[in-house]
Input
Amino acid sequence: MCLAGALGPTPGRQFHIWATDISTRVLRAAQRGIYPSGRFDDVPEAWRRTYLLRGQGASQGFYKIKPQLARSVEFARLNLIEPFPDQQPFHIIFCRNVMMYFDKPTQQKIVERLSGCLERGGYLLVGHSESLTGIEHALEYVRPATYRNHKPEKAGKPWR
Output
């Protein structure tokens, strides 16, 4: 909603979100795009009218993401410790509240791989309770939980 609101109403798909999780159950729920209305209490009314369908009958008390917004999101299972599929470099990667589940050597490998998936100038955002302290990386610290890829792009595919 934030991206769609910021980019404005122009024809065609302006952005693509690749939403991943290791849990197929979580992915199925997210793909349905149906959420309790209370999750949108802090969302401006104009955004709710623009991007959500209000449930009626048995669906009362729920919202569904409108198809034109839902089409901008692709859901996929991803295990951060397995090889990543080939993708274009990303402008931004949100890897929030995940690193805490891994030991430092595994965190090191994940951060190296994620930073290789960022385009030059791209951002990696981690959870506010997480940091990359103690992990060697080529990212520039911007502020807590926010890091920027400022290194030149490597030749070849950044995903392996």
Remarks:
- The chain has two domains: 2-6+13-73, 79-149.
- Strands lie at 17-21, 34-36, 52-54, 62-65, 73-77, 90-95, 118-126, 139-143, 146-149.
- The first strand starts at residue 17 and ends at 21.
- The two ends are 32 Å apart (CA to CA).
